[in-house]
């Protein structure tokens, strides 16, 4: 069992030993460290934090621990209860709060949970600020409020509606055009908060919604990472109901994938490609950003519209920082994460759904036909479980030396660009694994390339 402290927050498995897992004591410790850090950011009498959670079984327990720790520090809390990551992100500036915490382990299985930490803009903390919080947590130098200065908790259940209104008000979301199309869509909410938010949005857009696993009870009916091998039930439901397409999100609704009318995956990597195609068609010449593990197809689509593409290190905050620097029209991550600055600087599946529907209404074509209009790349996403004896840094350095005559990028692990393919090797921010991502002109080539590098890593580790 594991506790991971990284740029993506404090993430771990529930139960077990303090310091090795996300136990109640660890949740309190890191919530307190965040609260102490937050109070140092703004010198004032009253501080406020927005807190929401996905539907994980452990969510209510962890949220109560976190909120009451903040109360003990004299910080007021806006309790959104069941929510989504992007909903909390937009709530922070709306509430003029000093920060936010989302209790979710994203795509991880149900035994995991995490504290995702936001600043006053509703954006993830960078590595520098995250390190400060970890230092505070280890120092135990925390002072709590006296009895007359405790914070208060205020519930606010309006933010699903407020989030949806914000999405529908975006200029490029073609509400009337979508309504006129009479779409029928199957939604797999993986029994988390996407099962609330996505159907609500679709219904406001006049879409006929078929709900699949939309009961927010935290009992994930399949692996919650929205990958093809986990989505056979969605495929069957799309075909059974003669739907126009299917939608699946992860438990905290910041990742989005589509399935076409034939029950075939549109491709998680192509969520961002399609949304960018639509946004750039209305803003020609604008730029895009995604992370290094994302498909080359975004580069191709961006250049088709006269813009420039650039890749960042993996991690949402890295993508956001480069997006701001390049003043991009849209960006995100190839795992289905849409970041649209006209809304906010965070991955948002609700925004992605609305842009995708607007694209379909604009193109007037089926989802399978739309997919055929994009460059055809195939990706393999594999992993190696970390063990204490595995020297990850040494392995990556060896790979860097071995492939020094190829086009290399080393800002995040090692990425090797070949003429017709690429491989990216990096230590995960969210799981105790090495990720091996490859892309090529066929699935067989991508899988073969990944297997080749797994064999090389295995040989280096045994040497």
From TrEMBL:
Transmembrane segments: none annotated. Its cofactor is Mg(2+). Pfam families: PGM_PMM_I, PGM_PMM_II, PGM_PMM_III, PGM_PMM_IV. The keyword Phosphoprotein applies. Residues 398-455 form the Alpha-D-phosphohexomutase C-terminal domain. Keywords: Isomerase, Magnesium, Metal-binding, Phosphoprotein. Residues 8-139, 175-263, 270-376 form the Alpha-D-phosphohexomutase alpha/beta/alpha domain. Signal peptide: none annotated. The keyword Cytoplasm does not apply. InterPro entries: A-D-PHexomutase_a/b/a-I, A-D-PHexomutase_a/b/a-I/II/III, A-D-PHexomutase_a/b/a-II, A-D-PHexomutase_a/b/a-III, A-D-PHexomutase_C, A-D-PHexomutase_C_sf, A-D-PHexomutase_CS, Alpha-D-phosphohexomutase_SF. Belongs to the phosphohexose mutase family. This is Phosphoglucosamine mutase. It comes from Postechiella marina. The gene is glmM.
């Amino acid at each position: 069992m594991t506790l991971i402290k990284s740029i993506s927050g404090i993430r771990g498995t529930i139960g077990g030993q303090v310091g090795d897992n996300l136990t109640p004591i660890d949740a309190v410790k890191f919530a307190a460290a965040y609260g102490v850090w937050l109070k140092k950011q703004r010198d004032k009498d009253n501080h406020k934090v927005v807190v929401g959670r996905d539907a994980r079984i452990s969510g209510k327990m962890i949220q109560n621990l976190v909120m009451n720790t903040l109360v003990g520090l004299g910080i007021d809390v806006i309790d959104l209860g069941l929510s989504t990551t992007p909903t909390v992100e937009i709530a922070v500036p709306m509430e003029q709060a000093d920060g936010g915490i989302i209790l979710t382990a994203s795509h991880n299985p149900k035994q995991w949970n995490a504290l995702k930490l936001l600043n006053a803009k509703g954006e993830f903390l960078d590595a520098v600020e995250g390190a400060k919080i970890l230092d505070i947590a280890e120092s135990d130098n925390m002072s709590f409020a006296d009895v007359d200065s405790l914070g208060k908790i205020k519930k606010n259940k309006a933010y699903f509606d407020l989030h949806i209104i914000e999405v529908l008000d975006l200029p490029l979301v073609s509400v009337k055009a979508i309504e006129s199309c009479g779409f029928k869509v199957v939604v797999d909410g993986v029994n988390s908060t996407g099962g609330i938010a996505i159907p609500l949005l679709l219904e406001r857009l006049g879409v006929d919604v078929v709900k699949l696993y939309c009961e927010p009870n935290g009992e994930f009916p399949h692996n919650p990472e929205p990958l093809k091998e986990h989505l056979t039930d969605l495929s069957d439901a799309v075909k059974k109901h003669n739907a126009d397409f299917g939608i699946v999100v992860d438990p905290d609704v910041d990742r989005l994938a589509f399935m076409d009318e034939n029950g075939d995956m549109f491709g998680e990597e192509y969520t961002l490609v399609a949304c960018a195609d639509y946004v750039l068609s209305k803003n020609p010449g604008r730029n895009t950003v995604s992370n290094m593990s994302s498909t080359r197809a975004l580069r191709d689509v961006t250049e088709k519209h006269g813009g420039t593409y650039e890749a960042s290190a993996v991690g949402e905050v890295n993508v956001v920082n480069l997006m701001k620097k390049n003043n991009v029209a849209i960006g995100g991550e190839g795992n289905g994460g849409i970041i649209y600055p006209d809304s906010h600087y965070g991955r948002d599946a609700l925004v992605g759904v609305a842009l995708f529907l607007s694209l379909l209404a604009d193109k007037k074509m089926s989802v399978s036909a739309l997919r055929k209009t994009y460059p055809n790349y195939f990706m393999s996403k594999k992993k190696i479980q970390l063990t204490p004896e595995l020297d990850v840094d040494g392995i990556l350095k060896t790979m860097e030396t071995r492939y020094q005559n190829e086009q290399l990028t080393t800002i995040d692990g090692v990425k090797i660009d070949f003429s017709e393919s690429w491989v990216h090797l990096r230590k995960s921010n969210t799981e105790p694994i090495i990720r091996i991502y490859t892309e090529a002109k066929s699935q067989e080539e991508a899988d073969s390339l990944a297997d080749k590098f797994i064999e090389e890593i295995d040989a280096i580790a045994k040497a």
